[in-house]
């Protein structure tokens, strides 16, 4: 390990871990390379781009909002016409 490096840890979902493992396996990269590169990209984006153009990978909604969304999705009048 290079002296200027430090170790961090984080909890991620099982799906995120599976996607990371698949990526490093197919690309021949190491997990630490992927994590540092992704973190640097994210930090650069939030530093240089306006906040309103950053799309979060997850959107948290309330239970009430989820019910409204499900009702809208279940209503055939809300489906796109073909």
Record the SSE blueprint.
Layout: H1 14-27, H2 31-48, H3 63-74
Describe the structure.
The mean pLDDT is 88. The chain has one domain (14-78). It is mainly alpha-helical. 0% of the residues are buried. The radius of gyration is 19 Å and the shape is elongated. The chain has helices at 14-27, 31-48, 63-74. Helix content is 54%, strand content 0%.
Distance, first to last CA:
57 Å
Query: Pairing-aware structural class of the strands and helices?
Result: mainly alpha
The total number of structural domains is 1
Q: Give the overall form.
A: elongated
N to C succession of SSEs: HHH
Q: Biggest β-sheet, characterized?
A: none
* Radius of gyration, in angstroms, nearest whole number: 19 Å
Continuous helix count: 3
* Tally of strands: 0
Strand content: under 5%
**Low confidence ranges:** none
Mean pLDDT: 88
Keywords:
3 helices; 82 residues; mainly alpha
